[in-house]
Predict the 3D structure of the following.
Amino acid sequence: MLPLPNSYPHNNTYRMVHFVQKEPSEMERITETLADALAAGRDAIDAIYTLPHCGPSELDQQIDDLDHQLEANQLLSDEFRRTAMILLIHLPEIEVAAEDMETRDRAINQLHNANNMAQRVADLVGAEVQIQALRRNHI
């Protein structure tokens, strides 16, 4: 059996470089989050429009309002969040055929995601406005 060495050569020239990738903060990703909210909202409205329609309903005006708000990129308005919440309450109540349930569920999920992301952006913008006001008053 060979004896184990008690020292190891240490004259290597290996260099280790570690690149630190800094994740952007939520404030830095605010436009991306808003764009994701807009995409989710558009996917939701597309899914709603593919559902079978059986005559005028009380939700038609809400659906049209949501569509106009998405076209105008008005996701930070209170009207968008109010309209989205009304639809989120009433869409699960709509009776659809079994083959359309997945489409309805996708519309609900995407509208929920759009509403949450829009609310998050509104919260971040509101917080930044308050921070700026505090800085102006205390500096």
